[in-house]
């Protein structure tokens, strides 16, 4: 019963737990299956160039945005497909408002950009006549997130650049992915390096840990089944099965340096064919 209650408290952001290990001092564990030549230390130098894309040029023109340079090519890879038509974007974390202005400049001019933050001063960064809105509340409050979705959603893109606390990242994803993200939408969590910094880890599992588990969930259709269960016109073929919502609606997970991206797409059962 105690474990069940703790799970509920964590879900609603009411229980802060100590990190299981001091991640800042954690050594890199390596499987013995990886050849030693792939795990030996090699020298890596400082980046001397700059991203060469339109989004970085927009970023460079605003003095109130903080972003890691290597994020911009990742943004382009995942967000460029949304630029041809108006979208709805939710950004968790407003700070000085520069990021909201950057997205408004980058996406279709008729797009709606919504930012949320716990800092009430962030409300000053709303530009309602340009469809840039700010709502004040916690990313760890499912009721607040539902209200934002009811007002502006569902969204094509959700970007978590909020507190970087691991229990906040987990709660926000759980509250937003199903109801607030459109089919075909993209959910991005950035600054994932903070999952390895002890001051940000306040849950039994980090968001990185949870993301790794979702890799297994993508492959849920294959659990306890054979290839012939998916073979076209085979007598053993399965035409329908019950899957978890994530397995049925998660098209891909992309891991980058400090960023994890979830592409949402309603899936069909995989099909195999022998010719």
How would you describe what is shown here?
With 275 residues, the chain is of the alpha/beta class. The chain has a domain at 2-18 and 73-208 and 251-264: Vaccinia Virus protein VP39 (Rossmann fold). It contains eight helices and seven strands. Strands 3-2-1-4-5-7-6 form a seven-stranded mixed β-sheet, with helices on both faces. Helix 5 (142-152) crosses helix 6 (166-176). The model is unreliable at 1-6 and 8-22 (pLDDT under 50).
Short account of what is shown:
The protein is an alpha/beta fold and 275 residues long. 27% of the residues lie in helices and 16% in strands. Helix 2 (54-60) packs antiparallel against helix 4 (98-106) and helix 5 crosses helix 6.
Keywords:
7 strands; 16% strand; 7-stranded mixed beta sheet; 275 residues; Rossmann fold; disordered N terminus
* Strands, count: 7
**Helix coverage percent of residues?**
25-40%
CATH architecture of the domain at 2-18 and 73-208 and 251-264: 3-Layer(aba) Sandwich
Report on the biggest sheet: 7 strands, mixed
Oligomer: single chain
CATH fold-level topology of the domain at 2-18 and 73-208 and 251-264: Rossmann fold
Global morphology: globular
β content, as a range?
15-25%
Rg: 21 Å
The first-level CATH class of the domain at 2-18 and 73-208 and 251-264 is given as: Alpha Beta
Question: Can you write the helix and strand succession as a string?
Answer: HHHEHEEHEHEHHEE
CATH superfamily of the domain at 2-18 and 73-208 and 251-264: Vaccinia Virus protein VP39
Secondary-structure-derived class: alpha/beta
The stretches of 5 or more residues where confidence is low (pLDDT under 50) are 1-6, 8-22
Integer average pLDDT: 88
End-to-end Cα distance, whole Å, is 54 Å
Please give the count of helices.
8
Q: How is the largest sheet built, in terms of strand order? A: 3-2-1-4-5-7-6
